[in-house]
Automatic annotation (TrEMBL):
The keyword Cytoplasm applies. Residues 223-298, 328-384 form the Fructose-1-6-bisphosphatase class 1 C-terminal domain. It is an enzyme of class 3 (hydrolase). One of its GO terms (cellular component) is cytosol. Residues 11-68, 87-219 form the Fructose-1-6-bisphosphatase class I N-terminal domain. GO terms for molecular function: fructose 1,6-bisphosphate 1-phosphatase activity. Keywords: Carbohydrate metabolism, Cytoplasm, Hydrolase. This is fructose-bisphosphatase. One of its GO terms (biological process) is fructose 6-phosphate metabolic process.
């Protein structure tokens, strides 16, 4: 009977968010509307990603794009998005296209005032006539270098509320992650899954392509207290700091008689974090210690790379005239949303110095190391950093 109920009494994401809204007597439905526009953006990107191999959406500029449609969604906004972006336009790379879709969906929701996107160097201040009380930080298509080989990719978003609608500033998004009111990601994989928290636990919804709706499939996700998996780019091991090196050594050669952990690393943050959330374990992208031979190598790349610092995962920093390579994650649209979800699911997230959600960013594209996952595994990492200090 339960299976029947599951099949016939569908908990769509909109129904879920409306239920949540009704629990708060002061809620006016703004977050519900905003989320439905984010959901539409995710459906659009899901559809475009699915067609990428066929339609050559990722092809070079200059070729004319094929028209993509949004399955099961005939509302005006989706038609507007499709016509606005795709018909007759030259092909755009999927990450650029996704960014445009999300910016337009967010602005037209009438519920946003500041947008920060990985794709845009500057924050977008929404036209006063269309302003609402929310700020959205997002990476429209993270891991886009994985598209060509069909590896899962995703959209990540975090939502803040502004302080004063009449006086909107960058300070509204330069807040610690613990002030976020909602966060989530959508993974475009073997299925399309949207994981969301509005500060009351974490829920996962899977897109039913035949309905064009996200249906609740993973209610109240809780991450296991301890996991059997560690997830890290081991190719960077030579530059790890000591606590990271010690932790990974312990994963592989435990001295307490426990079994070694398995290594899983997809190289696509949304997919790696999704697995960590469901199966437990820890995902880490540590700081690099200064590479003594790095100076010459990075001097050359700095000249050009400094111009492309935003919108790519490699960010070159000048530090006391020495060059430090940093591939860490963006605080606003990667570290905070994922940390928010982890904590809401009973796990934790740490930067190597502090609780990730306590970090106060000073610029919109600030980056940070990250260690997140099962509570006990992250506790162990925190212990190693504390011992070093
Ligand atoms: P992108 O922001 O350029 O799309 O790349 C970000 C991706 C993340 O999804 C992934 O976790 C990371 O880069 C992998 O980094 P690395 O290849 O250094 O392991
Ligand atoms: Mg990214």
């Amino acid at each position: 009977h339960e299976a029947d109920a599951y099949r016939t009494d569908l908990m769509t994401i909109t129904r879920y968010v409306l239920n949540e809204q009704s629990r708060n007597p002061e809620a006016r439905g703004d977050l519900t509307i905003l989320l439905s526009h984010i959901v539409l953006g995710c459906k659009f990107v899901a559809s475009a990603v699915n067609k990428a191999g066929l339609a050559k959406l990722i092809g070079l500029a200059g070729e004319t794009n094929v028209q993509a449609s949004v399955p099961g969604n005939n509302c005006h906004l989706s038609q507007f998005l499709v016509s606005e972006i795709e018909i007759g336009e030259e092909q755009k790379k999927l990450d650029v296209l996704s960014n445009e879709v999300f910016v337009k969906a967010l602005v037209s929701s009438g519920r946003t005032c500041v947008l920060v996107s990985e794709e845009d160097e500057e924050a977008t201040f929404v036209d006063p006539a269309l302003r609402g009380k929310y700020c959205v930080c997002f990476d429209p298509l993270d891991g886009s270098s994985n598209i060509d080989c069909g590896v899962s990719i995703g959209t990540i978003f975090g939502i803040y509320m502004i302080k004063d609608k009449e006086n909107v500033t960058l300070e509204d998004v330069l807040q610690p992650g613990k002030n976020m009111v909602a966060a989530g990601y959508c993974m475009y994989g073997s299925s399309c899954t949207l994981v969301l928290s509005t500060g009351n636990g974490v829920n996962g919804f899977t897109l039913d392509p035949s309905l064009g709706e996200f249906i609740l499939t993973h209610p109240d996700i809780k991450i296991p207290k301890k996991g059997k998996i560690y997830s890290v780019n081991e190719g960077n091991a030579k530059n790890w700091d000591e606590p990271t090196a010690k932790f990974v050594e312990k994963c592989k050669f435990p001295k307490d008689g426990s079994s070694p952990k398995s290594l899983r690393y997809i190289g696509s943050m949304v997919a790696d974090v999704h697995r960590t959330l469901l199966y437990g374990g820890v995902f880490l992208y540590p700081a690099d210690k200064k590479s003594p031979n790095g100076k010459l190598r990075y001097t050359l790349s700095l000249l050009s790379a400094s111009h492309f610092a935003y919108g790519t995962s490699n960010f070159i920093l000048i530090n006391n005239s020495e060059f430090t390579k940093s591939w860490n994650y963006s605080v606003l649209y990667e570290v905070f949303p994922m940390s928010f979800l982890m904590e809401q699911a009973g796990g934790q997230s740490f930067t190597g110095k502090e609780r990730a959600l306590d970090l106060v960013p000073t610029k919109i594209h600030e980056r940070s190391p990250i260690f997140l996952g099962s509570f006990e595994d992250v506790e162990e990492i925190k212990g190693l950093y504390a011992a070093q200090a």
